[in-house]
Amino acid sequence: MQKKTLIKAAAGVAVVAAALVAYRSFGWAHWSGPANSLGLDLSKPDALIVTKSLSALPRDMLKIPLARDVLREDFVFYYEQNEDRLGLKGSLRRIAYEHELGWGDQLLRVVLDQPADVALWRDADGSLKHFAIAVSRNQLTRLVEEAGKVALKDSQMRIAGELSVDGDEVKVFALDYAYDRTLLLAAHRDRLVILSHPGMLYGGEDGAKADDTAEKAVVDLLSKDGARQRVFHDQFRLGRGVVDGHSIAVKADYLSFGYQPFFGAIDALRFDFSKGKWASHALLDAGKLNKGGYDAAALWPVLPHNPSACFIVPADWAAMQPVLKKIDSEAPLLPLAEQMSGPAAACWYGGSRLHTPVFVATRAPAAANAEALLADLFKATVGGKGDAAAGKADGGVMRWQRTVATRQGKAQPTLAMAGNLVVFSADGRLVDRVLAVRSKQAPAVADKLADATRTIGVIAPASLAQLIETEAFGSLPQSQEPILRAAADEHLVPRLEALKKYPPYRMVLKQLPSSGIAWEPLEWQEVKR
Question: Of 154, 163, 257, 297, which sits most exposed with the smallest number of CB within 10 A?
Answer without folding.
Answer: 257
